[in-house]
Amino acid sequence: MEKELTLSEEVQSYIETLDWQTDRDLPPEQREEVQKNRRLVEMIVKTTVRSRETITDAKLAIVEQLVTSSPDIIAHLLDDYFTRDLIDAVPGYVRRTLKLSRLDAVRLPSNVTNGYLKEAVRTYILGLAQASVALSRAALEQALKERLGPHLTGGCVKFRFLVKEARKQNILDAPMEDLALDVANAGNQVLHEKPTDLTKAVEILFKVRGLFQHIYSS
Predict the structure, then answer these.
(1) 165 domain-assigned
(2) 3-state class of 107 per DSSP?
(3) 188 or 20, which is more confident?
(4) How many CA atoms lie within 13 A of 144 on its CB side?
């Protein structure tokens, strides 16, 4: 039995069909010119995105004049670029989501705390390793503050102090205390010039998810 295509595969196939239909009736010499123009457009789009995401030099600052003078055209090109990029990335999103299990606990975190956890998970799913590790640490810190009491919420309190207090109040046991410190160290490394990868990110995320279940069931 033939495997049914997923929606992302259907969309990918549709995009490939559109590209093929655009080129199929062109004579060879014109096709070469079209491909050359496509490379130019791709350079413009990637330069526009890169100049928003990172600090860049002024070598291709002329592209910004095009962005300013023809914003509708650039918006259309960016839409095309991001759509293709997103569709290509969907299988990775699916794989990373399926690595994670369902989370249950006796009590529920606040919307704020659950929001931190959600963003830590979502950035991992999207393939943003450093953001996921940093947000995992932030989510755990928020959870500890929430469980320890309102007098700690919103204040500037050292992470190790939170862990020790949670241990004293039996919110964490000894193994969970070690996991919490592992998460804190990983977050600190990311924030202090030690980039990470998705393998480490999911390892930290597993620890945080286990900690959340323990914290909200203890």
Answers:
(1) yes
(2) coil
(3) 188
(4) 30
